Here is the input.
Amino acid sequence: MRTLILEKGGRWLIASDFNAVRCLEEKRGRIGENPEMSDFNAFIETTRLIDIRLANRWFTWYRSDGSSMSRLDRVLMTEEMFTMGGEWVQQRLRRTISDHCDILMKTKIIDWGPKPFRVLDAW
Here is the structure.
């Protein structure tokens, strides 16, 4: 994926269970850094992806017994996609059957004002 993003460029929005956290604050129940953390951060930095903030909760994955939780799921995007307009926000939805929460990606639409009124003089 890294090669594809760097070679092709353009607008990319990647939503996935990356199975990695970016920092220790993104997990509870298991202490200590792991190699996936530095690899994941290097991937984001190398590809210059933007990690969109999660608006309403911190964690997206929960162990069934509640003993640990992490932010494994997220949306990343290129600057070209990010600057298309609006304010991008990830919203974590309720967990149902899965141990992962669904994520809703929203953007606040920019209101450019009313459309110009046009009259067609067809007579």
In short: The domain at 2-108 is CATH 3.60.10.10 (Deoxyribonuclease I; Chain A).
